[in-house]
């Protein structure tokens, strides 16, 4: 198996086809509904068994300089539960770290929560319901341990923000 970033038009066609097949088609969503306007700037990963045919995919984008977000993780049905999703998420996390992200957040489908927990993500809160059916949970994983000085500074900034009305 190899882990690559899609680059050609053909790569992206197969990449979006798998995204649609796993994340949209079962809910009768049309072709095209699997894409969003961050796809042009996001970082994409695909795991391929042979040639450049993806069996597992995922995307990472930045919400700000510290916060990266993972979306559209999907593994072809016959390959689920064989470590492919872990290869994808590891590659996305490595990229996020290399780019200086402090943490990664994501909205996990309820069925995928155990997968993300195994990969070190913690539930923050219940988030939205997709297609009136799929409950999502906001999850987060810290990538960096803050140094002692940064930790104290962060603590006082948070304290000040939370208590500015009474100071
Ligand atoms: C969720 C998904 C991306 C995980 O990828 P995967 O290749 O199946 O996962 P892996 O084989 O790498 O699993 C890693 C670990 O998580 C566990 N795991 C994965 N999916 C799980 C699930 N649904 N329930 C419980 N445990 C799960 C595996 O058992 C494995 O544990 P182990 O290390 O103790 O053996 C994939 O199953 C998928 O595409 N599901 C359908 C689409 C989806 O829900 N995408 C997520 C959108 S938020």
Task: Explain what the structure shows.
This protein has a 7-stranded mixed sheet with strand order 1-2-3-4-5-7-6, sandwiched between helices. The chain has 167 residues and is of the alpha+beta class. The chain has helices at residues 9-23, 84-98, 113-118, 148-163, and strands at residues 2-4, 43-48, 54-62, 67-75, 103-109, 122-130, 134-142. It has one domain (2-166): 3-Layer(aba) Sandwich (Aminopeptidase), CATH 3.40.630. The protein starts with a strand and ends with a helix. Helices cover 31% and strands 31% of the residues. The mean pLDDT is 92. It binds coenzyme A. The site of coenzyme A has 18 residues, from strand 4, helix 2, strand 5 and helix 3. Coenzyme A binds at residues 22, 73-75, 80-86, 108-109, 111-112, 114-115, 118.
């Amino acid at each position: 198996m190899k882990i690559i970033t899609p680059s050609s038009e053909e790569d992206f066609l197969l990449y979006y086809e798998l995204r649609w097949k796993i994340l949209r088609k079962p809910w009768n969503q049309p072709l095209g509904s699997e894409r969003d306007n961050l796809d042009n700037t996001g970082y994409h990963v695909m795991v391929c068994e042979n040639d450049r045919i993806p069996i597992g995919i995922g995307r990472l984008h930045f919400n700000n300089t510290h916060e990266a977000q993972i979306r559209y993780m999907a593994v072809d049905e016959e390959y689920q539960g064989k470590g492919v999703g872990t290869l994808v998420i590891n590659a996305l996390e490595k990229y996020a770290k290399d780019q200086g992200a402090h943490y990664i957040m994501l909205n996990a489908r309820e069925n995928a929560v155990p997968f993300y927990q195994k990969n070190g993500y913690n539930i923050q809160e219940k988030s939205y319901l997709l297609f009136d059916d799929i409950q999502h949970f906001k999850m987060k994983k810290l990538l960096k341990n803050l140094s002692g000085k940064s930790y104290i500074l962060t603590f006082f900034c948070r304290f000040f923000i939370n208590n500015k009305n009474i100071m």
